[in-house]
Amino acid sequence: MSRIAHEMMRHEFADAAWQERHAVTRVDQLRAWVGGDADGNLMRDIELGLARAPMAMRITPYVLNLIDWSNFFQDPIRKQFIPIGSEILPSHPLLRMDSLHERESSPVDGLVHRYHDKALLLATDRCPVYCRFCTRSYGVGLDTQLVSKKRASPFQSRWNTILAYLRATPVIVDVVVSGGDCFRLKPSQLLAVGTGLLSIPSIRRIRFATKGLAVLPMKVTSDHEWTGALVNISDAGRNQGVEISFHTHFNHPREITDYTIAAAELLFKRGVRMRNQTVLMAGVNDDPEVMKQLVKKLSDLHIQPYYVYTCDLVGGIEHMRCSVGLACQIEKDLRGITAGYNTPLFVVDTPGGGGKRDVHSFEHYDRQTGIAVYRAPSVRPEQLFTYVDPLQSLSLDAQAAWSDPQRASRILSDAIEVARAKSMGFE
Ligand SMILES: *Cc1c(COP(=O)(O)O)cnc(C)c1O
Ligand code: SF4
């Protein structure tokens, strides 16, 4: 390639609009990306994977470029975004769509009000990429063969209803703007959501949660209008005593490139506070060394590692979930390697709507059956919540028990009973 062509390519590659225009959403585009070497069997396997996935596919060329195609099956970046039919395991019998019961905790469409003083605003249902393990597979992204999505479109009228609820509910002081992803909002829409929230006097903290910095970092360095809108909101918030922060979603140290460094430096210099949330996934980051590198790299970029979540129960990703026991082990290995405030808290977002709990704080955990039972006194004091380890982490006998509805319901009620007895002992 001539030097000029190469420079033009580089220039295009660093342009977020070019990345978005060339995002890959279909297998034939993926085949074209791979070119002459495309393996027909693999492409068919991906088609089978997509047919069983609750999430549509969308990947930026930037992310495609991070994938090591010579190690496609094992690659930690690939695993997050491209399903392969032959790797999908049967789901755990306790898997339900919307396992966190978000829709049931929504007083108005697009706002989840589960905790006392904080709420989650779903600004849009689009993201720059779609992650296979997305909790919000009931609503985020395009329809798939399996799921027709509950839309959350980026419309002012929808936001107005949400803002009216927030204004009328001053107990809420903390709003997470998620979705969907604010990287898919136009600058004017980002400003509208930000200034709308800043106009509500009771709100003290606003966070924009985004996968964008991890999958489209050139947005920050090339879309000046969008970054300007974000910085404007951040400055306006600071001036009126409201903290605005930016919550990123990096899962693997290889997701941090020169593009990421340039974007994070720009945001840091312009005073945007950043924190990171990671999802713990088998074959991606279920290794203390990988997690240590991730934490160190994020800390160097002044992105504070905030949470590591165990994977929610989402269809088609059973092979990527990790046990509660493994999450506890990795947390133990991690704590102490760097500043405590840069050491993430490992959490389980409890199925059934108990909210996030420290992974170690179970009332009862049985490694044999893979059941962990949590209480959530600040959310629903009367209830107990269970998280279940993936079946493949259990003995064959325990797996057989789970596949028999009668035995499954017995081991579940036994675990609840033990947990109730144990937690009573403290009261
Ligand atoms: C995660 C979450 C929040 C924010 O919780 P933090 O623990 O403060 O990060 C708020 N509302 C809902 C529904 C959530 O899932
Ligand atoms: S970026 Fe976030 S909201 Fe979007 S698909 Fe991924 S996990 Fe879901």
UniProtKB/TrEMBL annotation:
- For this UniProt record, give its keywords in alphabetical order, as a comma-separated list: 4Fe-4S, Iron, Iron-sulfur, Metal-binding, Pyridoxal phosphate, S-adenosyl-L-methionine
Tell me where on the tree of life, at the top rank, the source sits.
Bacteria
Q: Does the record bear Ribosomal protein in its keywords?
A: no
Cofactor or coenzyme needed:
[4Fe-4S] cluster; pyridoxal 5'-phosphate
On whether Ligase is a keyword of this UniProt record, the answer is: no
SUPFAM superfamilies the record matches: Radical SAM enzymes
Q: Name one GO molecular function term.
A: 4 iron, 4 sulfur cluster binding
Q: Which residues carry this modification: N6-(pyridoxal phosphate)lysine?
A: 356
What family is this?
A: Belongs to the radical SAM superfamily. KamA family.
NCBIfam families the UniProt entry points to: KamA family radical SAM protein (TIGR00238)
Q: What is this protein's record name? A: L-lysine 2,3-aminomutase
Q: Which organism is it from?
A: Microvirga vignae
